[in-house]
Amino acid sequence: MPNACHPRRLPWLRRFLALATDNWPARGYLAVFAAFVPVAFLFPDSVYATIPILLTEPLSLLGVVIPIGPGIEDSGGPAVVLAAAITGVRLLLCALVNAAALGALAHHVRDLRTARHA
């Protein structure tokens, strides 16, 4: 079947991921975030465990209303794993949104510079 009969699925997702990964500032942000996520889960009591939350600050604080937080550690294994998975997915989505915003800002600055020198 030719590709013309299949519409492109989720073009907005492709554009979003392109903004989050197609320039150096956004890639650097994602690399720093990815470097500190294992630290946060392996050493939750260290000072460096809060860095992923600080890197995703504007959006990660919106998730504070989710009832997963202090006290969940006492409830047992499956609840702790579920809480960690939800927190990890939420932080990943926040990081992708922040990287896309940083990528859009980098594109805007680049376009302004090329327009100024043209």
Describe this structure in words.
The chain is an all-alpha fold and 118 residues long. α1 packs across α5 and α2 runs antiparallel to α5. The longest helix is centred in the last third of the chain and has 41 residues. The protein is globular and about 60 Å long. The N and C termini lie far apart (45 Å). The model has no long low-confidence stretch (mean pLDDT 81).
By oligomeric state, this entry counts as: single chain
Number of strands: 0
Helix/strand class: mainly alpha
Describe the global form.
Answer: globular
Q: What does the radius of gyration come to?
A: 19 Å
Mean pLDDT figure: 81
- The proportion of residues forming helix, as a percent range, comes to 55-70%
Distance between the termini: 45 Å
Q: Low-confidence segments, ≥5 residues, pLDDT <50? A: none
* Count of DSSP-assigned helices: 5
Largest sheet: none
Strand content: under 5%
Order of helices and strands: HHHHH
What does this entry show, briefly?
The chain is mostly helical and 118 residues long.
